[in-house]
Amino acid sequence: MPCSELLLIGGRSGAGKSTAAFALHDLLVRRDVRHAVIEGDALDLAHPSPSEHGLAARNLRVIWANYRSLGYRRLIYTNTVSVLETEALVEAVGDAPKVTAVLLNASDPTAEERLSQRERDESLAVHLERSRRTAALLERRAPSSVHRITTDGLEPSDVARRIAALLDWG
Fold first, then answer.
1. Tally of domains within the chain
2. Is residue 27 part of a domain?
3. Name one Pfam family in it (predicted).
């Protein structure tokens, strides 16, 4: 059975991770490239947070096993800090996948503009502050092997094409 290929898309809230993944999905569909997209931020979205139990990785393992049983070998995985958790994600996916990691960056004004489309009032303020802290953390801790794409002023299709150019997926 061939090994998987894993694309990790990370970045601060408002950098465009989900939007880029969906645009990449559309691009790959047009090219008839078999793949799956999993939104990692939703794999352990609960209150209180179950993050200390590794639920996101456990859920990824199960969901990806279902895709693999159907013949899928290419996975687009989005999660804010995915580029910092490569080892755990590789373990969850199994079979020593070929990994490409991409960190999407956005300026504070761009992130604020995007976040204001989905958050309001106190929630917006909380998300903006968390996004700023996360951006600094990601920039400081992401390995130099992680590809970086600044999304300010780019259309989702532009970001998708830049990511696709990093892959050998057809």
1. 1
2. yes
3. AAA_33
